[in-house]
Amino acid sequence: MIPSLALVPGEPAGIGPELCVRLVQRPDPSRRLVAFGDPATLQAAAAALSLPLRLLPPDRPATRAGDLPVHEVANAAPVEFGHPDPANARAVTGALQLAAAACRQGRLHGLVTGPVHKAVINQGGIAYTGTTELLARDAGCEVVMMLANDIVRVALVTTHLPLRAVADAITAQALVRCLRIVDAAMRRDFGIERPRLAVLGLNPHAGEDGHLGREELDTIIPVLERLRGEGMQLVGPLPADTAFLPRKLDGFDAVVAMYHDQGLPVLKYSGFEQAVNITLGLPYPRVAVDHGTALDLAGRGIADPSSLFAAAALCTRLAAARANPPS
Predict the structure, then answer these.
(1) Topology (CATH level 3) of domain 144-281
(2) What is this structure's pTM?
(3) 170-181 tens-digit pLDDT
(4) What is the pLDDT of residues 70-84, one digit of tens each?
(5) What are the helix and strand counts (H, E) for the chain?
(6) Distance (Å, whole) CA 75 – CA 70
């Protein structure tokens, strides 16, 4: 089965549309892409890059470089690259929701998303905390954010919280939920029969036996012991300052970090251009770029498309794995 993937450019004034144009210059026979977005913006991005783009009806397959089937989601206002307009916020979120619905209904097999601008969406009158949260709400399921490159996979127990709120959010329930979702995704989507997860502590030196905080003793260690009893391969809680040493990472399939800036700076330093954002727990694969809208680069033809290329390639593999599970 050749997976059909939804491709959503994201913020129309950012680099997302031109990255999509670059992506379709490299036809891949292992997948089919269907964009959800504004045709005029995609054509403008192609013109800015001096690249060919032939937009097709959504049910017509691409046959050559530059072909892109499109499900039209028209912007409300004209787009000027580098200058986002809150009037287009509803088109941005609408494209995401239409693409996600097609995946939930089985008409498409995975979702690849470009960068959005959260502040502009909120300025457009839509309460928006992030695409991960939007997709989880529409699917009615719990999810985990994981970022990955060729060196390391990092899943997050908490995501976009103020630092002073993180400790209160590290509950036994939240940690169990996260670890179960990560373990299941490693098995189903990545084909790892017995995934081995490194679990970081919350405090410096993983609490140092309670001298630097009790979250490890009171919450994290009891959860790890409980889940180990169910057969999960969990190592930790580990001090975050040494857990990412290469000789330690070699033994793990993923790292579970307690908060955003505990795990992601290391991942981004180790390979930002190839990093992608994966939403674990959805009923379909979703992979996004791991960068922002880069408004200062938009329309100039100099944005690096590596993350979108990596996202599309990984989403293709994950969709194919779900369609052809091991017997």
Answers:
(1) Isopropylmalate Dehydrogenase (3.40.718)
(2) 0.93
(3) 999 999 999 999
(4) 999 999 999 999 999
(5) 13, 12
(6) 14
